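Q&A FORM
Asked by: J.P.
Topic: structure of Transporter

PROVIDED:
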Amino acid sequence: MSQHSERPAGVDGRQDQSAQHTRRSLHAPKRGWLHEAGKLVKGQTPHGTSSRPHQQANPKAQQPNSETAELDQEAETIFRRTARYGGSDPHDPQDHAYEPASPADDSDSGTRVPSSPTHTKPKHEQSRRSQSDDDDHDSEQGRPRGNPDESQDPNQVEWEGPDDPENPQNWSLRRKWALTVLVSMFTVNVTFASSAPSSATQQLTQEFQIGTVTATLITSLFLAGYCLGPILWSTMSELVGRKLIMSIAMLMYTLFILGQALAKNPETLFVTRFISGVCAAAPLTICGGVIADMWDPVGRGFAMSLFSCAVFIGPVLGPIVGGFVTQSYLGWRWVFWVMMIFAGVCWLAILLFLPETFAPVLLMRKAKRLRKLDPEANKQVYAPHEKSDWSIGGIAHRTLLRPFEILTQEPILVLITIYLSIVYGILYGLFEAVPIVFEMKRGFNLGESGLIFIAVGLGTTIGGIINIFLSLRYKQLTPFWHNMPPPEERLWGSMIAGPILVLGAFWFGWTGQYTSVPWYVPALALIPIGMSFTLVFISLLAYIVDCYTVYAASALAANTIVRSAVGAAFPLFSRQLWQGLGANWAGSLLGFVALAMTPCPYIFYVYGSKIRGWSKFAPAMDLKVREELEKEGKLPEDSLNTTSAFDRNGLRQAKKDAAAKEDPEKQHQQS
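REPLIED BY: S.T.
REPLY: Here is the structure written out as C-alpha cells.
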C-alpha cells in the first residue's frame, strides 16, 4: 500500500498538493502538443486530463487488495519450492496439505508442502488470520500458507536477506554470464562428441569388416546413453550438488573416450561409446540447472538462448572437424583423440572455475558449517534439504515412475515430446543425409561435406538471436502477471519455427535431388532448418518448465528419454531412407511429418490455459492471477472466452501500467 493512499485529506494533503504543483511547474517547458501526443501513445495521462473518474469507476484498483497479496505470496511459494527441490518435488499432488500452518505443525515440517494454486480452500478459511498481533508481518498472509517447512522456523537456515551474496541469484551479471558461457562450452563438448565420429563410418566398415548400419551405431549408441544418463545424474546432482557430479561424470566421460581411441574390435568401441554417452548426458542435464540456479525467469530467457545454441553448435562442429581429421594422414582414431583433449580441458575447467550453484545444497553446507562452529548452540540448526525424502523408494518414484506417469497423463507433454523428438531426429538424420546429397551426388570429399554444416550452425545462431527479441515480450508481461505470465507466451518461437522447418525440409529435399541445381542452393536450405531447431527447442522446453514448475524435472526427464531414443534411431534408417526414396521424397516425407506437428504450438496457445486447468501436475498459477486481473478491470471479464487468443495476455494494459510507473505525474495523480 502506498503512503499517499493512507494519508487523510488535511494538512498533509494540502502539502502534497503544493509539492505536486511545484513539481509540475518544473516540467513546464515540456508542455506541448508533441509531448502530450507522445504520452498518449505510451498510454500515459495527458496534461489536464483528470484520472479521478477512472478512480471512481474502479475503486478496487486503488485500494489495497488482500487477494493480490495472496497471489504474490503463492507465487513466491512456488518459486521457493521449485528452487528447494530443483523442480523435482518429492510429494505427489494428491499428498499436498493445504491447511494454513500452525505452530503445532512444525514437528512434521519435512512432510508438508505449499498451498496448491489449483485447489484452494474456501474464502473464509483462506482469510483466517492470527488475532494476537495486528502487524502484517505476523499475519497468516505474511508467510507461505500451508507451508510450515518454509515458514519462519528459527532453526531453519535461510539466506541472509534478499541480497545475500552467497545466493547464486544475487551474483553479479559479469559472473553469471561468465558461468553461462562456461557451461555452454561443456555442452558444446559433449554434443560435439555425439556427431564427430559419424564422418568415420566408412573407415570403420573397412577397419572392422562390419556393415554400414552396424557402423552407424557409433552415433546411435552414444545418443542411447542420453536415455539413461539424465535419470542418473540429475538425481545425484540434487542430492550432493552440481559441481561434484559434473566433475565425476566428465572424468568418466574423458577416460572412456580413451577406450574408443584404442579399441581393437567393434565390441569395445560400441560399449565404451555407450558409456561415454551416459556420462555425456551430465552436462546436458546439469548445465541447464546451473543456469536456472543463477538467473530469474526473465533473465533466464537470454541465457537459455546461448545455452540452446550451444546444444546445436556441437553437433554442427562434429562433422566439420571429424571430416577433415578422418581424411587426413592422422586417420579416424585421431577423431577420438581430439575429443579426449577437448573433454580433458573441460574437466579441468570444471575443477578450477565452476562453483556450486544449487541453492538447497549451499544452504545445507551452511547449516553444517554453523553446527561445526558452535555444536552446542547450533545443534538444532538445519537446512530444508536435510529433511527431504532421499530414500531409495522416494528417489525411484521421482526418477523412474513419475516421468512416465506425467507423460501418460498430460496431453501437453505428449505432443511436445513427439514434436521435439521429430526435430531431434531430423538433426541427427542430417548426418546421413548430407553425405548422400553432397558426397555421393556432387562428389564432395569428407571435409567439404562437413563444411556444409556451417549453414546449420548459422541457422541455429539466428534462431537464438530471434529468441532474445521474443524474450523482451515475456519481460514486459512479467510484472503485470505477478511474475507468473501465462506459459503460452513461451510458444512464440515454435509458432514461428514450425512453418520454417516445413519449408526447409522441402527446399533441401527437392533441390538436393538434382545435380543440375548448384550445391549452394540445398546448402542454404539448412539455414532455416537450423533456425527451427533452436527456436523449437528453446520455446517448447521453456514451456514445459513454466507449465510444471515444481514437477519440471520429471517432465523434462520424460521428454529427454523419449527424445534421445528417437534421435538414436534416426541414423539407423536415414541412409536407407534418403537412398531408397531419393532426396526429394525423403525430404518431403520429413516435411509432411513436420507439417502435421506444426499446429501443436498454435493449439496450445489458444487452448493451453484451459488444458492446464484440468491438469494434475501443472499448478496453473496464471489462471488465478487472471481472475484477479479481471476483477481489477485490467482484463475483460471471462477473458479466456471473450477475447481473441492474441489479446488475452493483456500486453497492451501491461505497457500502459509500465508507462504509468515511468511517468511521475501519472503516479501523483493516481495517489
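FOLLOW-UP: Residues 616-670 form one domain.
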